[in-house]
Amino acid sequence: MTSLPGCTSAVDPWLAHTVRIADITDEIEGVATYHLEFADAGVGESFEFRPGQFNMLYLPGVGEAAISISSDPAQRGTLDHTVRVAGNVTGELARAGVGATFGLRGPFGSAWPIDECLGGDVIIVTGGIGLAPLRPAIYELLNRKNEVGQVTLLYGARLPSGLLYTNEYDDWQSRGLDVNTTVDRTDPGWQGNVGVVPQLLDRMPIDDPENTTVLCCGPEVMMWYTARSALGRGIPTERIWVSLERNMNCAIGLCGHCQFGPTFVCKDGPVVRYDKVASLLRVEAF
Amino acid sequence: MESEKSSARFISKSELQALIDLLRDDGFTVVGPTIDQEAIVYDELTSVDDLPRGWTDEQAPGKFRLQRRGDDAWFGFVVGPHSWKKYLFPPLTTLALAQKTDAGWEMHTPEADETKYAFLGVRACELAAIGIQDKVFTGGPYVDPVYAARRNNAFIIAVNCTQAAPTCFCTSMNTGPKCSTGFDLALTELPDGFEVESGSDAGIAVLDKLAGQTPTEQQSKSAEVARQQAVDQQSKQLNTDGIRDLLLGNLDHPRWNEVGEVCLGCTNCTMVCPTCFCSSVDEVADLSGENVERQRHWDSCFNLSFSYMSHGTTRNTIASRYRQWLTHKLGSWEDQFGTSGCVGCGRCITWCPVGIDLTEEVAAIRSQDTPVAGAAKSGGAS
C-alpha cells in the first residue's frame, strides 16, 4: 500500500471531554461567565492553555460554539468562559444551570505573545465581549508585572452597562494595570470618556513606541483603526497583534469554514500578527 | 525509465478479473468506474463486466454525455462526476457520539471503520488529488481519524489516460496524464491486455500472483504511444505563473462581480472537485434526545451559511464566494499546503450548469492585472 507519511496521531480530535458547570457569574445583560470543571479530574489537572486560546463548547443535540477561555492560565481547578448569548449553542448554555454537563474540546488556536511583551510596554485595546479573550493575558501580565513595563488597558463599550468585569478594575489598577474605559453613549451618572476606543490610543502618551506591544481584539474595522493609530504613533507593525473571528466548525483546520485568505483562524489564529492580515482586513466580504 | 521497463509486466485482459477476485479474497471492497444514470461513476465492482466497456465520455463546459466507442476499451474515457474522495472522505460520516446518563453526558468515539478499499481506475490527476488530500487531512497538527484509517487501508490501481477531454488541463498543473507516483499498480490499456507497472511492495506482491510476462518491445511501444495520445490531445491550458500573487493581489478585480452574475452558487464545482474538503457537522439525535451522533457532511464555500457568524454572514454575495473558492483553490492553498489545490481534472468546468471555466476566469484577471488593487492598497502604514 502507498504509505501515508507522518500519520501517527493516536489522539481523536473529535472526542470531547465532559465538563460540569461548577458556578455561573452573571456579568452584564446577556453575558455570563461559566466556571467549568472536568468530569475526569485527571483531565482537569493536565489541562493547560495559553492566553487567547479557545475551546469548542459542545451541547449535545444543539451543536458546538468556539468560546475563548477567560480565566487565569496559572490558576488550576477552574476554567472560565465568558459567553454572550448569540445563537443556538450559547442560548442553550444560558438555560443550563449549575451542575449541568456538556462537552468541551480544546484548547485550540494561537495565543497572545506574552513573551514578546516582556521588557517593554503593553497596550491592550478592546471593546465589549472582546475583553474576555484578553483577560487571561491581563492576568498573566500582572502575574509577571516585574518583567514588563507599563501595561495599559483601553476598553470600550456601547453603554456603561456593557463594560465587563468592572468589579475587577480596582484590583487590576492596584497591581499595575492602567485601566481606561470609554463608551459610545452615556448613561446617567457616567463621568468617564465618551467616544470610540482608538481615540483613547490617539490621545495617550506613548513613551517608547519601539518597545511597545499592542494586543487588540474587536470588530475588524476597530482593529484596523487601532493598528493605523498605533502605526502612526511609531509602534512597529510586528508589535501589533489582533484576534480574528470567523465561523468555526471543526477548530482543527479540517473543515474550511474559518479561512481568512491563507489563514485558518482556528489553528493559525485567532491571534495573529497584524501585518499578516493587514491587507485583507478591509477587503469587503472576504 | 530503465527500472520501470524492467519491472513492467504485460497481463491479458482476462487477468483483470483475476486481479479483482484476488483483492476481494484478500478482504478488499473493489471500487471502480461503472455506468449509472447516464454517467460514469465509481461504485463497487465484482466483475470486469461492471466496467464501462465500449463507452466514452464527451465533455465540454456544462456538458457530459456518454458515447459509444468504436472499440471495446474498458477504460476508454476520462473522468466522471465522482472522485475517490467519496471513499476516503465520505460525504456523510459519524465522528462522535454523545449519550446522556444519570451522571450527565458521556462522549464516545464511534467504532472504527475497518473497510479496506481497492480503487481500480485511478487517473494521474486523481492520484495527485489524493496526495493533496493526504496533506489536508493528515499533514497538519491534527489528523482526521476517518480519512487516515481509510487511506492507510487503500490499495490503488491507477490507469493511465490514453485520451483527453477538452476540459482536461493536467499538463498545465504537472499532475499527468502519466501516473508516476502514489499507486500500488498502474495499468496502460492496450487492445489485447494491460501493461502493468508496480509502485509499492504491496503492488509487487499482487502482481507476482497474476499470470503475465515481460512486455514485448512492441507492447511497450504501443503503451507509450497510447499514453502520449493523452498528452497530445490536451487543448486546454492554465497559465500558473505567479498565480497565487495574481489572484490574491486582485481581490477587487471587476471580473469577480462579472462571474458572480453568471454563477448560480449551486456548489456543483466543489462537490465534484477531488480536492475540495469543506465540511460541516450536524447533530442527529434519537427521539429521546439522549443519544446523539455528530455527523459530518460535505459542505461548500458557495453555501451562504458557510461563513455565517452571529453578527452576519461574511461572504454574502455569490461574487465573494466564487472569489473565495478560486483564490483558495489556486492561491492560498499554496500557503496552507505547499501545493496548488487544483489538479487540472476539469470536473468543475464540465459539471458547472452554466459552464463557467476557471481557466478563462484566471485568464481574464491576468489580462487586466492591476496588482495595486485589493490586497496591496489597504495594507501597511498607509
Q: Supply the helix-strand structural class of chain B.
A: alpha+beta
- According to DSSP, the number of beta strands of chain B is 16
Q: Give the terminus-to-terminus CA distance of chain B.
A: 56 Å
According to DSSP, the number of beta strands of chain A is: 15
Strand fraction of chain A equals 25-35%
Report, as a whole number of angstroms, the end-to-end distance of chain A.
41 Å
Structural class of chain A: alpha/beta
Largest interface: A-B, 58 and 75 residues
Largest sheet geometry of chain B: 8 strands, mixed
Indicate the overall shape of chain A.
globular
Radius of gyration of chain B: 23 Å
The spatial strand order of the largest sheet of chain A comes to: 10-9-8-7-11-12-15
The level of helicity of chain B is 25-40%
Helicity range of the residues of chain A?
10-25%
Instruction: Let me know the average pLDDT of chain A.
Output: 95
Main β-sheet, spatial strand arrangement of chain B: 3-2-8-9-10-11-1-12
What does this structure look like?
The complex is a heterodimer of chains A (286) and B (382). Chain A is of the alpha/beta class and 286 residues long. Chain A has 8 helices and 15 strands. Chain A has helices at residues 41-46, 88-95, 114-117, 135-143, 169-174, 197-203, 220-232, 274-277, and strands at residues 17-28, 31-38, 54-59, 63-68, 79-84, 101-108, 121-127, 151-157, 177-183, 193-194, 212-217, 240-243, 259-260, 263-264, 271-273. In chain A, the strands form 3 sheets. Chain A has a 7-stranded mixed β-sheet with strand order 10-9-8-7-11-12-15. The longest helix of chain A has 13 residues, at 220-232. The N and C termini of chain A lie far apart (41 Å). In chain B, helix 10 crosses helix 12 (318-337). Chain B is built from 14 helices and 16 strands. The model of chain B is unreliable at 1-6 and 373-382 (pLDDT under 50). In chain B, helix 6 links the parallel strand 9 and strand 10. Chain B is an alpha+beta fold and 382 residues long.
